[in-house]
């Protein structure tokens, strides 16, 4: 690895980690185009490090919401000066993450066996189709009952958590793609689905990345620490900017737009990796 490679991979991670386009697919394609073995142990450790940078970015974006969930933040004051509790609470978050964490824990080796270029290619296509269907159903067939994050019911949080299992079992499907689509299919608005998807990404990605890091911490050496540090910082900055811009432009960038991009990426995937 060199500095330019580290920067490119960190930028790709920061851009793709939280929007529904499959960061896994992008990282495989990028490492392939750069001539690296995606399964190299140092490369895998580097990917964990830059993923942690992206997680820190989302944690800062949602810092006030996190503090509110922990009961130590200001969720707004009524005229009487009383601090009202947010209707979104830790039970919602647990319902959103426990199903996927349980599947990941018990099926870790099985999931790793599924990991391959063809698996990711078809996941890109299938995920795109689900997003198109979710947007169509959300607009025409389902009554939206959760317009904001605090309107989310326990049942809707659990449904999103169950949809997240798809991304765990099918590498390349996209965690945010499955959760945003699951929310929209469950009567949650596009914006509220994205907000909840980003929020529950923090604990589930910390758990997954932390667990993987236990297996690869020995790759932190004097020769690699510079690349890990620069990758972490760049991934953090890029992810922060992307999430902020995405939430500001969410009504203009619809799931179908991401689905079309996924189909294009799948075609590129097939041309450069499958052939």
From TrEMBL:
It is found in: Cell membrane. Keywords: Antibiotic resistance, Cell membrane, Cell shape, Cell wall biogenesis/degradation, Hydrolase, Membrane, Peptidoglycan synthesis, Transmembrane, Transmembrane helix. One of its GO terms (molecular function) is undecaprenyl-diphosphatase activity. Its EC number is 3.6.1.27. InterPro entries: UppP. It is an enzyme of class 3 (hydrolase). One of its GO terms (biological process) is cell wall organization. The keyword Cell membrane applies. The chain crosses the membrane at residues 48-67, 87-107, 114-134, 194-213, 225-246, 258-274. It comes from the Bacteria. It is a multi-pass membrane protein. Its main location: membrane. The keyword Secreted does not apply. It catalyses: di-trans,octa-cis-undecaprenyl diphosphate + H2O = di-trans,octa-cis-undecaprenyl phosphate + phosphate + H(+). GO terms for cellular component: plasma membrane. Belongs to the UppP family. HAMAP family: Undec_diphosphatase (MF_01006). Catalyzes the dephosphorylation of undecaprenyl diphosphate (UPP). Confers resistance to bacitracin. PANTHER family: UNDECAPRENYL-DIPHOSPHATASE. Bacitracin is thought to be involved in the inhibition of peptidoglycan synthesis by sequestering undecaprenyl diphosphate, thereby reducing the pool of lipid carrier available. This is Undecaprenyl-diphosphatase. The lineage of its organism: Bacteria, Bacillati, Bacillota, Bacilli, Bacillales.
